[in-house]
Fold:
Amino acid sequence: MSDPEDDSTATPDQGERSTGADQPGGRRSDSQTGARRETTETARSRPTAGGSRDPPPTRTTGPRTERPSDTVLFIRDVVTSVGAVVLIGLYIFTISGVWPPMVAIESGSMEPNMSKNDLIFVMETDRFHPDAAHDDTGVVTAQAGEAVDYEQFGGPGDVIIYNPRGNTQVTPIIHRAMFWVEEGENWCDRANDEYISGTEQCSEAPHAGFITKGDNNPTYDQSGSGNLTPVKPEWVVGTSEVQIPGLGWLRLQF
Structure:
């Protein structure tokens, strides 16, 4: 006969063990264990009162990956940025044929059409030949531009970038090509008297080339104190094509 006090003091563990009494050794059968797991999974996926379901547990496999350090990320960003700039520069060079393909304005000699700190995109003269260009130079002079209504940067003719006297060691000049002279020609005969500083500058041209002038300058380059000669076609770096105001300031700082 069992003691009543044993039933009244049974713990939940004892109660659970009693459910498997029908199995040898008091163990649960596999069917009972599977049913209990199925009931638990069903309860987890059952919608709540608000109609939402609890998200299933997230399980991950494989080794844990470490986040790159800030130094690695910084170096990667710098390399990516530099690579993008190089690719853009090469693309622009492919189009222009000139390196560097952009120049910055350092003075006000071309104002108001070009201002100091403007960035100018340069095109090689061989890349584009307007019908009004002089021979095979690819450059349209102001005199020729007036006749055919060809304008660039607020005035007739092309604005060229050239190395004075062909010297590549000095800063190139960016001025407008006014007209062409032949070797031995007294170019002052076809010049505008307003842009000549003195008769002593009027002489036979030592070689053929362009007579140039800054839009804001009072005289031709070849008539000023610089004693410049007509610009030979091979001294011309290129023609000005596109103007970006103010962006040349960065280039002038470095």
